[in-house]
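ok so i was messing around last nite and threw this chain in just to see what happens. nothing serious, just curious
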Amino acid sequence: MRLKLENNFQNINWNYPTPIKFGIDRVHELAEFIYELGIKNPLIVTDPQFREIEQFNTIVENLNKSEIKLSIFSEIKGNPTGQNINDGVEVFLKNENDGVIAIGGGSSLDAGKAIAFMSKQKENIWYFEDVGDNWTRAITENLPRVIAVPTTAGTGSETGRASLIVDERTYTKKIIFHPTMLPDLVVLDPSLTVSLPKHLTAATGMDALAHCLEAYCSNVFHPMAHGIALEGIKIIKENLINAYNNPKDIEARAKMLVSSTMGSTAFQKGLGAIHSLSHPINAVNDVHHGLSNAIFMPYVIKFNQSQIEERIVSLSKYVNLDNQTFDGFLQWILDLRNELSIPHTLKDLNLEFDFEKLSKMAIVDPSTPTNPIDLSEDDMKTLYLNSFEGNL
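result:
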């Protein structure tokens, strides 16, 4: 039976912050979109897991039927590394590709954007870390066009101007940034997310929530992003549990996919300690980013209480919580994590953590300056320890 969206929002085209094609089975229009962008020989960048499923095979078969010459690169880790990007660029140049179709979760989208960008650069990838103004010296002429097709509802990389890449030399997750890394076209097809396993539906959904929540709590003045974050949280509150418990609830899947895109649009306003704590253990311990965000979330909310309580109370009213107080919101987060089978502590992951090392990495993370409360290295260690032991 064909999946169908109600409420008259099946196929819609948006142009914020980049052209977006939203609707069920829009991925079947991919050949048309490729022609529209003038791409003749695309490199499909995906992850090893998605490459093995039937949906991916169908996409490739449809492109072959449209006589589109293509190559495939899928040597990508869950937290993509600099070597993954270098290998992808080598394949891109060898096959004389002229565009990138990034299909998959955040790792695939981040890698695809970085491969397209780096295919024209003379400097190595770390030169373009989001520090100072190095990005202004990038080569921007004739960059390959990029189409982003997310298959998870979490990272929102499809509407981001950066990629998170692990520097293997230091086991540090770095932000590679340039405005031209924003994809030229996004295809939001909720049918691609229906087969997502429950644990990834949970982790990626909590990632989208972390993006919206930290953007909402940031003190940076950006009313547009603030409003998007607020509405994104409401959408997640109303749809994440449904998507988790009823994977084929296509309306819940569709709205979660949109909330993910909203989250990455909103965090132009800034992030905070949830991400500061996550990035080091993503790089060092290879923990899934959405999962780590979900674990850290209540501990950071509690730490920031003195600066965010009024905003959280307003948020609680907007999303219509039963208990519209700071404590009521915190309890909602704890209950939500429990319903999604998210571990309550880092200890539950059964991994070895060097909190001294991780704290030194977290304090210099790019997300740290926009946390609502100024943070020290000792604060980071306290937050890690609280998250490990479950001390709220």
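not much to say yet. The mean pLDDT is 95.
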